[in-house]
Amino acid sequence: MDSRAILAEIPRLRRYARALLGDRAAADDLVQDTLERAWSRIDQWRVGSDLRAWLFGIMHNLRVDQLRRPPPPTRPVEEGDCDLPTRPTQTDGLELKDLESALNQLPDEQREVVLLVALEDMAYADIAAMLGIPAGTVMSRLARGRERLRQIMAGLAETPASRLRVVR
Asked: What are the Cα distances from residue 122, in Å, to 112, 114, 117?
């Protein structure tokens, strides 16, 4: 059996299944089941017989089996029946305070660009015009400010308190 012969029949199988079921996803499932069954029972196909008729016969029998089989039991879902998981919010206030502290540790030129982009959702060109600097400088300050924020929030950056030395 040449696999190309079966592959050549797929468009016809799909067209028939879609017309039969009216639902693209269900039709594709039926075609897939048909091809799976055909491959697993390829030894039952008689050489010289009509391959298309054999494949359509398999599809027909699968569809009859689907109609005979009772649908799986379902129940309607009422609003409030299921509790959707929610993330814990106990530390939200602390995280905001940490972010505020980290923002305050940024140099003024980086902080203002980060805030204009993140909070005000302003375009780089608008920020550049407003601050009177080139757009490339805006992008550079933003990149440096974001990286510094990452370091501070991860505890990797040197803070003013960590620069203190013990004097004896």
From this structure: 12, 10, 5
